[in-house]
């Protein structure tokens, strides 16, 4: 049977403080120091673990060493697996004492001792990787700890009957969400913000795609987060960051009240784009607050301080709800899938006790939680110790111990507790401030021995200058803590204005409706497992450095954790206890009667063992299932004797092993000799058998050859006889066949002659009969014809009178039908061509066909128009639509329009995609080019034009240098307000820009082009489609104003004489006038 390693084996110092001799505070601290110096960071008080933070990585954290260094966890796991008892591991200590790392070690232990398999490994990996995700969102750097948990976590790890993990459930408590908006000096915000900023560059942070550090991103994927879910979470984290950039400025109203406004709307715009919220909705929520009173809604303005409060409240609530959603999402991934009953091991990791220079509401809640946890620890350890003596039947006198329930009652009492009075003050009508809350505490809690305030009725604190007027002090189990009352009421209210909640609910971001639902969230009830183990974490120094052990700091923690009292309670009864079976298994070699096997009950064996070892009766006691040893020296004596016996047993085992090894070697040689002899005898017999077999085969072959030759001779004689008989029979059958053939030929010639004669006779007879039938048929036809003529004559005579009465009407109808038939047949040859512009049509032959003639002409025209339209391609349709739009804009308004009708709209006159000269310009313009042409940009100074490349895209028009292709100006179409042209045949046009826009910094553009009609038509068509608004304003006038930088210049068009040439010319008259001379139309 395998024997487990004991704490006493190769022990440095004393592994279990119950066995420490002598027991005092100095020896206790010295034992901790000695073990700490030798990297032994775990020490026990019975089942309670004392963990010293080494501030460095040790080899004991590998999976192979976890079970060796954590027998307490091993005992809890085996109790859960073998005894079907739910377990709970409570981890407590100051901030920075290593509680978070201790909880990770529990998870590593579970991964090390559980079974293997694809599904089990997946569950273990998900449970392990849930820690980095929660640490990224819930941990932060403080002055005492670089990775301080700023939330409480309780994880239920669920196991099956084999002890393999099936999944888990995580519950979070009291996230320190105020850290999102404000951090104490020397501390940082939650890790996730820094990981987000370090995971991507500045350009990436401004894009739609956000990145996280590789470690956290891999952990989220292993836990079960999809890639789009990770992106949604990072968008909300980025929104919280951008929310902190929003600032407000005051703005006075007519009624004298101040109103807050967002200082820089770009920050607000970026956040709204991330969350999918309309900018105006969120801006109003930061400036107004809606209050309902008696079924009426009243909207009040917010000043700058209230706006900042609303911003911070939104940031805290958004991050807090996102963290709760993360925990829920992780639970969905790691929850157990099986519906059977599960065993549970709970691990509680919560804030450490905190004492800062400035302690506020957050430290008050954290220290209250640690106060409750200390109370549970005292009750569980002392009660379990004393109940075990009663359960085992050991005589025991109950020991009284200090109960910190009086401190818990001071905080949580439903009537006079601090939390109850804080809630009551928040709900009280009227003016409620932190000072009124402190006044109430001074009135009700003044006489409490653990409450101190300078303004209370207790006069002993009136002269205490270390206690400010706006503070109160509570004497916790870990020492006195001074709390500043400022902010208690606001943080307890944690008010989020309804307007902000409604604005968040309207967001299109897929997570926002889950984070801000309508109605109250469901509450979750949790149960405490039946059995609890405790890990007490101690920090050796305040410098967060390795190899430093500060006696005063460790002594302070030992005192307020009550470790000395715990050891004394353990030793007041019995210092060591162990079940009978392991005790007998460990020390059975000390007695000849129990070695090597004891056949009776384990308790009887232990009694025989202790009697044989002459252990005094007052040094031990027998329980129902355990042996209890009072003095540690008795145990040390047994260990020394056991060590001596083990040396003798080792010598005996070596002797037996050497003898067994020699006998085994001899038996192997003997067995080998027998095998060799057997193989040789087999080989000799095999050779003899092969010789006899070869001789037998030769004799058999000779005998078979003689018999075969004899049979062959007999078969050849029989074959010759059969061939002779066959030849004679063949000659006879041939003679008979030839005689029969001659007889058949004679009979055939006679039959053929008879057939020919009969055929000639039948033919002659048939021809005679045919002539008779034809004669008779001619006679019958003649009779039928004569009868038909006779009947016709009789019918005509009978119906002649009826025909004369209706003859006119029938003739008329016949004539009309004949005329219409002739008319329609005539249309077939006289129908005009298929061209829609052909207006010819055949003349109307008769007046009564006037309506039909006109309707047919209309129907035919519609039909050929439809056929003509069906031949159009999409490009041709677009050209005709542009021509039609140009007609609507310029027809009868611009003298240049008639000459442009016959010219097709080409669009790209420069062939910008094919011409290598414009390759640089083509790469600079990302959108599709709708029009590319050379225009002249008119200079205000002299009225002369400079050639420019004019490019029109879907959203912009671009002016570029003709020689270099460099972009001179790029104007978005929404910045264009109107276009001005003259009524004459010139190509001048002005593009007027929106005042105040970035594009209008240098003023409007005055351009000249040969394709003015096409440019303005495409510009009008593109602007209307891109802006999705009304049509652009096109001003057609011979005199209009153009804005050049800060001045407005009038452009005037006049009719010039022949000396002006064939093209229009622009000339500057003065600083305010440009005159364009247009040649007269011929």
Automatic annotation (TrEMBL):
Record: residues binding ATP: 93-100
InterPro entries according to UniProt: IQ_motif_EF-hand-BS (IPR000048), Kinesin_motor_dom_sf (IPR036961), Myosin_head_motor_dom-like (IPR001609), Myosin_TH1 (IPR010926), MYSc_Myo1 (IPR036072), P-loop_NTPase (IPR027417)
Record-annotated Myosin motor domain positions: 12-643
Keywords: Actin-binding, ATP-binding, Calmodulin-binding, Motor protein, Myosin, Nucleotide-binding, Phosphoprotein, Repeat
Record-level Gene Ontology MF annotations: actin filament binding; ATP binding; calmodulin binding; microfilament motor activity
Presence of the UniProt keyword Aminoacyl-tRNA synthetase in the record: no
Gene3D superfamilies xref list: 1.10.10.820, 1.20.5.190, 1.20.58.530, 6.20.240.20, Kinesin motor domain, Myosin VI head, motor domain, U50 subdomain
GO terms, biological process: actin filament organization; actin filament-based movement; endocytosis
Single GO cellular component term: myosin complex
Compartments in which it is found: Cytoplasm, Cell cortex
Domain (TH1): residue spans on this chain: 894-1080
Family: Belongs to the TRAFAC class myosin-kinesin ATPase superfamily. Myosin family.
Name of the protein: Myosin IB
Species whose genome carries this gene: Oncorhynchus tshawytscha
């Amino acid at each position: 049977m395998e024997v487990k390693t004991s704490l006493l084996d190769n022990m440095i110092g004393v592994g279990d403080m119950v066995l420490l001799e002598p027991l005092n505070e100095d020896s206790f601290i010295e034992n901790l120091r000695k073990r700490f110096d030798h990297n032994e960071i775990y020490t026990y008080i019975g089942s309670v673990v004392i963990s010293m933070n080494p501030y460095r990585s040790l080899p004991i954290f590998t999976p192979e060493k976890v079970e060796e260094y954590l027998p307490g966890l091993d005992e809890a796991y085996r109790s859960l697996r073998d005894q079907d008892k739910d377990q709970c591991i409570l981890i407590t200590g100051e901030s920075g004492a290593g509680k978070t790392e201790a909880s990770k070690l529990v998870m590593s232990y579970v991964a090390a001792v559980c079974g293997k398999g694809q599904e089990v490994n997946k569950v273990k990996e998900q449970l392990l990787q849930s820690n980095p995700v929660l640490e990224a969102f819930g941990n932060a750097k403080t002055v005492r700890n670089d990775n301080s948990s700023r939330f409480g976590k309780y994880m239920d790890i669920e196991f099956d009957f084999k002890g393999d993990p099936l999944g888990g459930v995580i519950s979070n408590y009291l996230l320190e969400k105020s850290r999102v908006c404000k951090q104490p000096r020397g501390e940082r915000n939650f890790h996730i913000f820094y990981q987000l900023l370090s995971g991507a560059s500045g350009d990436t942070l401004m894009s739609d795609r956000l990145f996280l550090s590789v470690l956290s991103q891999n952990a989220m994927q292993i836990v079960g987060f999809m890639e789009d879910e990770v992106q949604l979470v990072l968008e909300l984290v980025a929104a919280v960051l951008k929310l902190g950039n929003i600032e407000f400025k005051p703005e006075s109203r007519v009624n004298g009240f101040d109103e807050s406004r967002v200082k820089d709307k770009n920050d607000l715009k970026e956040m709204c784009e991330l969350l999918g919220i309309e900018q105006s909705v969120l801006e109003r929520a930061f400036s107004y607050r809606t209050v309902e009173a008696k079924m009426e809604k009243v909207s009040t303005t917010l000043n700058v301080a209230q706006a900042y409060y609303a911003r911070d409240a939104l940031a805290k609530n958004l991050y807090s709800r996102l963290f709760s959603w993360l925990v829920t999402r992780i639970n969905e991934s790691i929850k157990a899938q099986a519906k059977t009953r599960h065993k549970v091991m709970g691990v509680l990791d919560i804030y450490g006790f905190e004492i800062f220079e400035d302690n506020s509401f957050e430290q008050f809640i954290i220290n209250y939680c640690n106060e409750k946890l200390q109370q549970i620890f005292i009750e569980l350890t002392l009660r379990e110790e004393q109940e075990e003596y009663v359960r085992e039947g050991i005589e025991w006198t109950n020991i009284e111990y200090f109960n910190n329930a009086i401190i818990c009652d001071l905080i949580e009492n439903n009537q006079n507790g601090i939390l109850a009075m804080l809630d009551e003050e928040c709900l009280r009508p009227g003016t409620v401030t932190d000072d009124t809350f402190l006044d109430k505490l001074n009135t009700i809690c003044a006489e409490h021995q653990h409450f101190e305030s300078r303004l209370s009725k207790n006069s002993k604190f009136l002269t205490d200058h270390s206690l400010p007027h706006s503070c109160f002090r509570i004497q916790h189990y870990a020492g006195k803590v001074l709390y500043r009352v400022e902010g208690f009421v606001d943080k307890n209210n944690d008010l989020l204005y309804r307007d902000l909640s409604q604005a968040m609910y309207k967001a299109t971001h897929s997570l926002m409706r889950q984070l801000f639902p309508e109605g109250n969230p469901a509450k979750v009830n949790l149960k405490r497992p039946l059995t609890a183990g405790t890990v007490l974490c101690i920090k050796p120094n305040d410098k967060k450095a390795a190899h430093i052990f500060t006696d005063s700091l460790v002594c302070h923690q030992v005192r307020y954790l009550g470790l000395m009292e715990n050891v004394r309670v353990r030793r007041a009864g019995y210092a060591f206890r162990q079940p009978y079976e392991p005790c007998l298994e460990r020390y059975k070699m000390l007695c000849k009667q129990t070695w090597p096997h004891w056949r009776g009950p384990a308790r009887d064996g232990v009694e025989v063992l202790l009697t044989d070892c002459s252990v005094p009766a007052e040094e031990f006691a027998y329980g129902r299932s355990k042996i209890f040893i009072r003095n540690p020296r008795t145990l040390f004596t047994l260990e020394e004797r056991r060590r001596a016996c083990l040396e003798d047993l080792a010598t005996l085992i070596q002797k037996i092993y050497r003898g067994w090894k020699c006998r085994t070697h001899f038996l192997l040689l003997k067995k080998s000799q027998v095998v060799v002899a057997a193989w040789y005898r087999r080989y000799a017999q095999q050779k003899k058998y092969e010789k006899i077999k070869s001789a037998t085969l030769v004799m058999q072959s000779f005998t078979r050859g003689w018999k075969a030759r004899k049979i062959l001779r007999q078969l050849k004689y029989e074959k010759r006889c059969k061939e002779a008989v066959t030849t004679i029979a063949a000659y006879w059958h041939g003679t008979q066949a030839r005689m029969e053939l001659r007889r058949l030929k004679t009979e055939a010639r006679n039959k053929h002659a008879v057939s020919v004669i009969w055929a000639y006779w039948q033919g002659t007879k048939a021809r005679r009969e045919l002539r008779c039938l034809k004669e008779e048929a001619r006679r019958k036809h003649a009779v039928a014809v004569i009868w038909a003529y006779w009947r016709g004559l009789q019918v005509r005579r009978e119906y002649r009178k009826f025909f004369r009465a209706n003859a006119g009407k029938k003739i008329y109808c016949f004539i009309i039908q004949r005329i219409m038939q002739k008319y329609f047949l005539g249309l077939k040859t006289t129908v005009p061509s298929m061209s829609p512009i052909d207006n010819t049509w055949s003349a109307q032959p008769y007046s009564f066909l006037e309506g039909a003639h006109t309707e047919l002409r209309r129907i035919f025209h519609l039909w050929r128009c439809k056929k003509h339209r069906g031949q159009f391609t999409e490009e041709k349709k677009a050209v005709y639509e542009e021509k039609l739009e140009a007609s609507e804009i310029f027809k009868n308004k611009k003298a240049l329009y008639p000459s442009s009708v016959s010219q097709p709209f080409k669009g790209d006159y420069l062939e910008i995609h094919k011409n290598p000269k414009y390759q640089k310009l083509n790469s600079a313009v990302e959108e599709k080019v709708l029009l590319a042409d050379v225009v002249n940009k008119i200079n205000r100074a002299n009225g002369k034009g400079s050639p420019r490349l004019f490019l029109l895209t879907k959203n912009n028009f671009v002016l570029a240098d003709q020689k270099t292709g460099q972009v001179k100006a790029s104007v978005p179409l929404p910045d264009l307000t109107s276009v001005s042209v003259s009524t004459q045949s010139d190509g001048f046009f002005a593009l007027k820009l929106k005042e105040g826009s970035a594009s209008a910094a240098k003023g409007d553009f005055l351009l000249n082009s040969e394709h003015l009609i096409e440019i303005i038509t495409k510009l009008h068509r593109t602007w209307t489609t891109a802006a999705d608004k009304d049509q652009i304003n096109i001003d057609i006038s011979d005199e209009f104003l153009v804005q050049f930088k800060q001045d407005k210049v009038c452009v005037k068009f006049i009719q010039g004489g022949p000396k002006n040439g064939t093209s229009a010319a622009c000339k500057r008259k003065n600083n305010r006038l440009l005159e364009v001379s247009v040649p007269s139309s011929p």
